[in-house]
Design a protein that fits this description.
Length: 116
């Protein structure tokens, strides 16, 4: 008569599989959260840079608009892709690397009655 196999130890194997799955999903979740946080930070910095450029173009603050943007980008380890000023409207594009992928972030700022 053949011997029946025992279920001894199957609980430990199931627990290991469950814990491994939870760790894997947590890793994916936290990586995605880090990407969204970095992109939000980059958008905030690009908005700030565009506002500084518009203020410098209008004379509210001293300095050359795109020089101020470049300094702000370098200070935060971003790359300046473009900075244009037209009729007191500033358009800024910064590059940020997230998980090895370069992403462009854009912002525009200027007087309310001129922005379109």
């Amino acid at each position: 008569m053949p011997r029946m196999r025992s279920d001894d130890g199957s609980g430990a194997a199931g627990t290991l599989i469950l814990v491994g799955g939870v760790l894997a999903l947590s890793s994916v979740f936290f990586s995605a959260a880090a990407v969204f946080i970095e992109l939000d930070r980059a958008q905030s910095l690009t908005d700030t840079a565009a506002l500084e450029a518009a203020d410098a173009a209008s004379g509210r603050i001293a300095g050359y608009p795109c020089d101020r943007v470049e300094r702000l980008a370098k200070k935060n380890n971003y790359s300046l892709h473009s900075c244009t000023i037209s009729h007191l409207i500033s358009r800024v594009t910064l590059g940020v690397t997230v998980l090895g992928i370069e992403v462009e972030i854009r912002a525009k700022a200027g007087p309310q009655n001129l922005r379109r």
